[in-house]
Design brief:
Length: 93
Amino acid sequence: MNVGDLLEDVAKEAGVEIGAMKDRVATYAAERAAHLATIPVTDPGYNRALRVERNNVAMQLGLDTTRTADAADARIVGFIQGLLLFLAGVKTA
């Protein structure tokens, strides 16, 4: 296996994490929508509840995106460091 193939594998793993993140956020959004469905649209607080839930989903998406990106970055940096050590002929204990 060449270096390009290994790097592609790392990138695919990051893609799997992104897919899982998308599923988590979609599930969370569905839960929040189900909660909104329990509030009558004519309720005086409905618009506020809608804004709150919109912000909750957006915040969840932002948090998940950051966590996923951090994990992918760490994996890629670790891969590159290991590759450089290997190519330099350094033996790790």
